UniProtKB/TrEMBL annotation, chain A:
<feature type="transmembrane region" description="Helical">
    <location>
        <begin position="147"/>
        <end position="166"/>
    </location>
</feature>
<dbReference type="GO" id="GO:0055085">
    <property type="term" value="P:transmembrane transport"/>
</dbReference>
<comment type="similarity">
    <text>Belongs to the binding-protein-dependent transport system permease family.</text>
</comment>
<dbReference type="InterPro" id="IPR051393">
    <property type="entry name" value="ABC_transporter_permease"/>
</dbReference>
<feature type="transmembrane region" description="Helical">
    <location>
        <begin position="246"/>
        <end position="271"/>
    </location>
</feature>
<feature type="transmembrane region" description="Helical">
    <location>
        <begin position="53"/>
        <end position="76"/>
    </location>
</feature>
<keyword id="KW-1003">Cell membrane</keyword>
<feature type="domain" description="ABC transmembrane type-1">
    <location>
        <begin position="110"/>
        <end position="325"/>
    </location>
</feature>
<dbReference type="InterPro" id="IPR000515">
    <property type="entry name" value="MetI-like"/>
</dbReference>
From TrEMBL, chain B:
<keyword id="KW-0472">Membrane</keyword>
<dbReference type="Pfam" id="PF00528">
    <property type="entry name" value="BPD_transp_1"/>
</dbReference>
<feature type="transmembrane region" description="Helical">
    <location>
        <begin position="250"/>
        <end position="270"/>
    </location>
</feature>
<feature type="domain" description="ABC transmembrane type-1">
    <location>
        <begin position="174"/>
        <end position="371"/>
    </location>
</feature>
<dbReference type="GO" id="GO:0005886">
    <property type="term" value="C:plasma membrane"/>
</dbReference>
<feature type="transmembrane region" description="Helical">
    <location>
        <begin position="291"/>
        <end position="316"/>
    </location>
</feature>
<protein>
    <submittedName>
        <fullName>ABC-type sugar transport system, permease component</fullName>
    </submittedName>
</protein>
<feature type="transmembrane region" description="Helical">
    <location>
        <begin position="182"/>
        <end position="202"/>
    </location>
</feature>
<feature type="transmembrane region" description="Helical">
    <location>
        <begin position="352"/>
        <end position="371"/>
    </location>
</feature>
Length: 334, 387
């Protein structure tokens, strides 16, 4: 144990040290070789030109390198692999895509993903908005917000364990130790194995992600709502608008931009998240989603071609969001 | 904060409804976690048969034991007796009633002497000690069955934690998680800070393109990267003769995956710093590196801190990247992967799963509670303009 701790500490110090040394060293070298003092006019200009090229490279170089190796190169490679066989030795044309769109499991995972994409972002955003609004004017609002925000901190996996316990099922003759079944039996129902109930089990898995993401939506929408000018609200109150009208007719239109941002962010999370399905059902009982199926195809079935094809489908699904993001930033820059 | 102005001091139906609604949400959001925490310190036998919400009440259970056989008898005067306890291990309780058939659990009260006939009697005390007594020697090699009803006090224990930390490997995984997380938090912040500064304040060719690239990469699903990067690791590792699944490998992967968001957030923050300071520093002949180190970095501490928390939580809680780049079944398994293993192999041992899950949650929860304000500020900086 002690040896392990020592090894860990050494590794941490070394890795961080290398990183710091690079930036200091590179800049020191630049200062040493490209110093402009004590030179005649022309060579000073030349030095300055070299400097103006090398300087930004030192600053953005490592990031550019890492982004290229870990994100840009893989995107290109994955597209390439998706047209090749399972070991990426031979070209197979569109075969992987043809397989995917004829595969029952894949079609089902697309259907489920669409359900996830509709339900999770809309419910998280709606609940986040509602809770932010309600907690804004009660004295224990801060405590309530902290508790609702808390699931953001824990892993999807720990969250899955928590909810798996809530959904736990025991036979009708024994006492239920899962909260949901205890309620259900208390209301007079038969105990259910919730996560094996086709269709509904999808909803039970989505609840976990909604439970995690609502706090995120709440925090951001709460901040946006505080930006709504108070005079507007007071004026509406004077005119005799009730809370429902103020909420829907004044607050929601004012924070619409932020709602879209939150919605987009959660949508991306939904597309990428696989931990919950992986931990709860691993796609059994009709709960497969694209991200989990891809992991399975790539690493359990060892089929790089088909796995890559699924990854590309996922990528294509994200493209509109990417395009929208870049356009927004471009607009801001101008 | 009073948005509603005059409406505040009237306690109406609407207000009561509002409090009730918020309470309802708070309960749904916190009760599942509470259940996990309570279950993690409960006795495993009690946890297996009763809901955690009943954990403070005593449990009544129906049980059966086989008493000692002829081998255990002792002669006392002209009597033969067999003694023992109905409770095994630390599963102690209080016997209420007992009997000899499953449908006669309440035939005798604890402390009574039951007359079995043929000169045999049985006494069971409330503490669970039984004395089977006979005027003739016992001959049966199988003990007689005793049915009883017992009351068990609620029991709480840290045994689950002890077991999970030692035999289930969570303790070692904890150190592994820290080894992965600390560099994978620090390195991307450093790299992103330099890049963000350049994107905000150095005028260079291709700046706009790089910014668009970073924003575009924000949404690339990292699943896209797994196979190509893993193959790259295998090739490079094979060439230089070190294992593909290594700490440097996962540090770099986490660093790269965290970079787009880090650069984006930090650039937005740094671009908002006052222009005059940078310009006068440039006038005074300061280099970009000096400005970055002495002015921008200290001013950016809030943004750096909030991103640090973000990245820390994300890496600590990650499952996918570590499954692929560290794997399981060797000594580098991180906590989430270890917990996933337990979920597969110990799916019904809730005492282990709950305590294991809580151990994986401790660090994020501490970070969350102590640094919540920075965390929130970081979220806001990235999502709401002027937040």
């Amino acid at each position: 144990m002690l040896q392990q701790l020592f090894g860990a500490a050494t590794a941490i110090v070394l890795s961080v040290g290398v990183c710091v040394a690079f930036f200091y060293g590179a800049n020191a070298l630049l200062d040493y070789y490209a110093t402009a003092s004590g030179l005649d006019h022309r060579s000073r200009d030349r030095r300055e030109r070299v400097r103006s090229i090398v300087q930004p490279l030192i600053f953005v170089g490592p990031a550019l390198l890492l982004l290229s190796i870990f994100l840009i190169y893989p995107v290109i490679k994955t597209v390439q692999y998706s047209f090749m066989d399972r070991g990426s030795f031979e070209w197979v044309g569109l075969a992987n895509y043809v397989w995917a769109f004829h595969d029952q499991e894949f079609l089902q995972s697309i259907g489920n993903n669409i359900l996830w994409l509709i339900i999770v972002p809309s419910m998280s955003t709606f609940l986040g908005l509602l809770i932010a609004y309600l907690t804004d004017r009660i004295w224990w609002g801060q405590i309530a917000r902290t508790l609702i925000f808390l699931p953001m901190a824990i892993s999807f996996l720990a969250a899955s364990v928590i909810w798996k316990f809530v959904y736990d099922y025991r036979g009708p003759d024994s006492e239920q130790i899962g909260l949901l079944n205890a309620f259900w039996v208390g209301l007079g129902g038969e105990p259910q194995a919730w996560i094996t109930l086709p269709f509904w089990n999808n909803i039970f898995l989505m609840i976990i992600l909604i439970w995690i993401q609502t706090g995120f939506a709440m925090v951001i929408l709460g901040a946006a709502m505080r930006g709504v000018p108070e005079e507007t609200l007071e004026a509406a109150h004077m005119e005799g608008a009730n809370e429902m009208q103020i909420f829907f007719k004044i607050i929601i239109p004012q924070v619409l931009g932020t709602i879209l941002v939150v919605w987009t962010t959660i949508t991306i999370t939904v597309l990428k998240v696989f931990d919950i399905v992986y931990a709860m059902t691993n796609g059994q009982w009709d709960t497969e989603v694209i991200a989990n199926m891809m992991f399975d195809t790539m690493f359990r079935a060892g089929d790089a071609g088909r796995g890559s094809a699924i990854a590309v489908v996922l990528m294509v699904a994200v493209l509109p969001i990417m395009w929208w993001n870049i356009r927004n930033v471009r607009k801001e820059e101008i | 904060m009073s948005i509603m102005g005059g409406g505040l001091h009237r306690m109406t139906m609407g207000k009561a409804l509002k409090h009730a609604t918020v309470l309802f949400f708070v309960l749904i959001w916190s009760v599942p976690t509470l259940g996990l925490l309570i279950s993690s310190v409960r006795d495993k036998d009690q946890l297996a048969i009763s809901g955690w919400w009943t954990s403070l009440s005593s449990k009544i259970s129906n049980d059966v034991v086989r008493m000692g056989s002829a081998d255990d008898q002792q002669q006392q005067g002209d009597h033969y007796i067999i003694t023992g306890s109905v409770f095994e291990g630390n599963n102690k309780g209080t016997v209420l009633t007992f009997g000899f058939r499953s449908d006669e659990l309440d035939a005798y009260k604890a402390g009574e002497t039951a007359d079995i006939g043929k000169g045999q009697t049985l006494l069971v005390t409330a503490a669970g000690e039984y004395t089977l007594s006979s005027s003739e020697a016992f001959t049966s090699s199988r003990g007689k069955r005793l049915f009883f009803v017992a009351k068990h006090a609620p029991r709480f224990t840290f045994e689950n934690y002890h077991k999970v930390l030692t035999s289930e490997g969570i303790g070692r995984a904890f150190v592994n998680s820290a080894t992965v997380t600390l560099p994978a938090t620090f390195i991307p912040i450093l790299i992103a800070a330099f890049t963000a500064y350049a994107l905000a304040w150095i005028d260079f060719k291709g700046r706009a393109t790089m910014l668009a690239l970073v924003v575009g990469l924000l949404v690339v699903p990292l699943q896209m990267s797994l196979i190509p990067v893993l193959r790259l690791y295998n090739e490079v590792g094979g060439y230089f003769g070190f294992p593909a699944k290594s700490y440097p490998g996962i540090w770099l992967a986490h660093t790269a995956f965290g970079l787009p968001l880090a650069i984006y957030l930090l650039r937005n923050y740094m671009a908002g710093l006052p222009k005059e300071i940078m310009e006068s520093a440039r006038m005074d002949g300061a280099s970009h590196f000096q400005i970055f180190r002495t002015i921008v970095l200290p001013l950016s501490v809030p943004a750096l801190a909030s991103f640090a928390i973000f990245q820390f939580l994300w890496v600590w809680n990650d499952l996918l990247v570590s499954l692929v780049f560290l794997g399981i079944a060797d000594d580098k398994t991180v906590m989430t992967a270890q917990l996933k293993e337990m979920l597969g192999s110990r799916g019904n041992n809730w005492e282990l799963l709950t305590s294991g899950a809580f151990i994986t949650m401790i660090v994020p929860l501490i970070v969350f509670f102590s640094l919540q304000r920075f965390f929130v500020r970081g979220l806001l900086a990235g999502s709401v303009k002027g937040g």
